[in-house]
């Protein structure tokens, strides 16, 4: 590892600075307070002050600016940098620049899942066995006042989450993670902070934490019967008045919920997934919301509260530590109480600074351990395999996922279900995934399956399999003639729920284990009439024929809105992570040989003729 120093900048790419110069380079503009504009500490003869909220969100286990699967410094098309170490530099510089004025530092959730660094301390050397989570080490050094729970906090079970919580120097807030019996929050719903401005009385600030109601679906196996997740608006309506009763002059919400009202789970829950704007609009008394979950950048947005007519400030600082939110709330003293009279926000870019030395030092050893782990060989591949064309043809590397999933489900079926033929669903998560010919590492395998999904088996009928495939085939744009077309001309069809194009991860194919499931996708036909020639072992699939189908927990819980699988009887659920099953399979068998699992079972056609795609 000594040859890699991921916190060092690439000189050709950027100039890196620290301190006040860092803030200027990151785009920090300190707007004048009313006091500065109208003389010191007073405006219209009234005392004034400013509360600044610094915020991060969706860090997803990123501390260093490092891509573990590529084994190099992180980079993307926009040359963003990632990681809490860089965000920490901006946060500390901002605090220093703001001097003695009130500053609040918050996170909006999704902290302990998303990188091999996070995975390693959840599963390989788990924090439940005594290790300290690298995110806890890093966040404690930053000095957060509070963080909201994200949905991914629940991926590794409640024991891991509670252990992580115990390692933090600040509270994890979740007003809408409640006990099923009492309906009271099982995490602190809020925290109250008090500040002493230069002039006037103490300033009392309430921070309300809200998480995502989708947890009830996505992590059903971990939370069912133990926690419930009512809507953000519903719980904010309970707790904002409570904060006001407890003397809060200002209420800031940290919400793991996007600003643009939408949902990835259709109508399976009574509460919207992305509800931050609804809280601003429908709950009186909220002054500002740090937004998370949607992985968007919102530098500044105002939502008018329909009851009070007041403007509520929203800011979302992208994800993975790429940005830091700076939200300024200007306050004046009215009748002995502080009141927000103006607000504005901006986001600072982490690619302008070096990583904070204290944070880097605190996780260096754990980072190096994980780099060694992901680069360790687990087996060999007889040939090079690539996912590059997985969205338009049946490729062996996706067949490998299907095979391992179906094999695990088959081994776990009991009773009458053990006689069912086994199918599997898989989607091309990462077109860049590949196995080299020769040695294959953990990193190679993990790059093929980039989500922490667990495996389930459900019982479905032939008619349901056909419906499922028809729904999946919405991914393709309708074309006429056999081409040639480019991949972009036939894939990622926009829909109502995916206006920017159906993502690759919502294109599922279905494969058989002991016999092939074969079909054509006719992309000249309209959505709903595209699957032709569906057969199992060469025999047309009967509508009432029964199968066990390997699916991931995201699909089984309603993710993507695919039909039948969320209501189908569950015949297998051992909470095994699919990525780990793939790694374990390679470790156990030593050799990945496509001859063992690969076959071309589906193809794209137009009017029955094979389509040519360049």
Automatic annotation (TrEMBL):
<dbReference type="InterPro" id="IPR008334">
    <property type="entry name" value="5'-Nucleotdase_C"/>
</dbReference>
<dbReference type="InterPro" id="IPR041827">
    <property type="entry name" value="CpdB_N"/>
</dbReference>
<feature type="signal peptide">
    <location>
        <begin position="1"/>
        <end position="37"/>
    </location>
</feature>
<comment type="similarity">
    <text>Belongs to the 5'-nucleotidase family.</text>
</comment>
<keyword id="KW-0511">Multifunctional enzyme</keyword>
<keyword id="KW-0547">Nucleotide-binding</keyword>
<protein>
    <submittedName>
        <fullName>Bifunctional metallophosphatase/5'-nucleotidase</fullName>
    </submittedName>
</protein>
<dbReference type="InterPro" id="IPR006179">
    <property type="entry name" value="5_nucleotidase/apyrase"/>
</dbReference>
<dbReference type="InterPro" id="IPR029052">
    <property type="entry name" value="Metallo-depent_PP-like"/>
</dbReference>
<feature type="domain" description="Calcineurin-like phosphoesterase">
    <location>
        <begin position="52"/>
        <end position="296"/>
    </location>
</feature>
<feature type="domain" description="5'-Nucleotidase C-terminal">
    <location>
        <begin position="378"/>
        <end position="566"/>
    </location>
</feature>
<keyword id="KW-0732">Signal</keyword>
<keyword id="KW-0378">Hydrolase</keyword>
<dbReference type="Pfam" id="PF02872">
    <property type="entry name" value="5_nucleotid_C"/>
</dbReference>
<dbReference type="InterPro" id="IPR006146">
    <property type="entry name" value="5'-Nucleotdase_CS"/>
</dbReference>
<dbReference type="InterPro" id="IPR036907">
    <property type="entry name" value="5'-Nucleotdase_C_sf"/>
</dbReference>
<keyword id="KW-0479">Metal-binding</keyword>
<dbReference type="InterPro" id="IPR006311">
    <property type="entry name" value="TAT_signal"/>
</dbReference>
<dbReference type="Pfam" id="PF00149">
    <property type="entry name" value="Metallophos"/>
</dbReference>
<dbReference type="InterPro" id="IPR004843">
    <property type="entry name" value="Calcineurin-like_PHP"/>
</dbReference>
């Amino acid at each position: 590892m000594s040859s890699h120093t991921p916190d060092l900048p690439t000189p050709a790419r950027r100039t890196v600075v620290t301190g006040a110069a860092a803030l200027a380079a990151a785009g920090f503009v300190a707007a004048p307070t009313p006091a500065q504009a109208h003389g010191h500490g007073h405006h219209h003869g009234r005392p004034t002050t400013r509360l600044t909220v610094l915020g991060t969100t969706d860090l997803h286990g990123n501390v260093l600016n490092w891509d573990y699967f590529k084994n190099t410094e992180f980079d993307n098309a926009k040359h963003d940098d990632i990681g809490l170490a860089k965000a920490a530099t901006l946060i500390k510089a901002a605090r220093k620049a703001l001097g003695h004025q009130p500053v609040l530092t918050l996170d909006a959730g999704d902290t302990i899942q998303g990188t091999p660094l996070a995975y390693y301390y959840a599963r390989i050397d788990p924090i439940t066995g005594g290790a300290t989570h690298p995110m806890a080490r890093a966040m404690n050094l930053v000095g957060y006042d509070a963080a909201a729970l994200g949905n991914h906090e629940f991926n590794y079970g409640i024991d891991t989450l509670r252990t992580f919580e115990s390692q933090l120097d600040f509270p994890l807030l979740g007003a809408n993670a409640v006990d099923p019996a009492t309906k009271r929050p099982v995490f602190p719903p809020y925290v109250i902070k008090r500040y002493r401005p230069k002039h006037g009385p103490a300033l009392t600030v309430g921070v309300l934490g809200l998480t995502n109601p989708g947890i009830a679906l996505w992590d059903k196996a971990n939370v069912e019967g133990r926690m419930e997740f009512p809507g953000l608006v519903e719980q904010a309506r309970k707790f904002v008045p409570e904060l006001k009763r407890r003397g809060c002059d200002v209420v800031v919400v940290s919400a793991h919920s996007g600003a643009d009202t939408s949902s990835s789970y259709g109508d399976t829950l009574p509460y919207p997934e992305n509800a931050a704007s609804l809280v601003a609009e429908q709950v009186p008394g909220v002054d500002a919301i740090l937004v998370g979950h949607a992985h968007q950048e919102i530098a500044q947005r105002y939502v008018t509260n329909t009851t009070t007519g007041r403007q509520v400030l929203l800011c979302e600082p992208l994800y993975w530590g790429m940005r830091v939110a700076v939200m300024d709330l200007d306050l004046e003293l009215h009748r002995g109480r502080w009141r927000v009279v103006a607000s504005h926000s901006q986001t600072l870019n982490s690619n302008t600074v070096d990583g904070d030395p204290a944070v880097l030092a605190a996780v260096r050893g754990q980072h190096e351990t994980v780099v060694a782990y992901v680069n360790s060989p687990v087996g060999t591949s007889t040939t090079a395999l690539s996912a590059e064309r997985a969205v338009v043809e049946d490729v062996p590397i996706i067949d490998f996922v299907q095979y391992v999933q179906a094999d695990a489900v088959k081994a776990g079926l009991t009773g009458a279900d053990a006689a069912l033929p086994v199918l599997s669903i898989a989607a091309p998560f990462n077109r860049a995934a590949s196995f080299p010919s020769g040695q294959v590492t953990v990193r190679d395998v993990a790059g093929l399956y980039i989500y922490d999904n667990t495996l389930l088996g459900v019982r479905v009928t032939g008619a349901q399999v056909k419906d499922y495939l028809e729904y999946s085939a919405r991914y393709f744009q309708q074309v006429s003639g056999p081409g040639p077309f480019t991949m972009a001309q036939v894939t990622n069809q926009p829909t109502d729920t995916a206006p920017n194009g159906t993502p690759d991860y919502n294109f599922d194919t279905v494969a058989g284990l002991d016999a092939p499931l074969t079909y054509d996708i006719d992309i000249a036909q309209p959505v709903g009439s595209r699957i032709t020639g569906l057969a199992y072992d060469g025999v047309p699939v009967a509508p009432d024929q029964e199968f066990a189908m390997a699916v991931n927990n995201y699909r089984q819980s309603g993710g993507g809105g695919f039909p039948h699988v969320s209501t189908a009887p569950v015949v297998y659920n051992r909470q095994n992570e699919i990525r780990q099953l793939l790694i374990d399979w390679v470790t156990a068998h030593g050799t990945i040989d496509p001859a063992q699992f690969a076959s071309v079972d589906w193809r794209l056609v137009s009017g029955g003729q094979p389509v040519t795609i360049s």
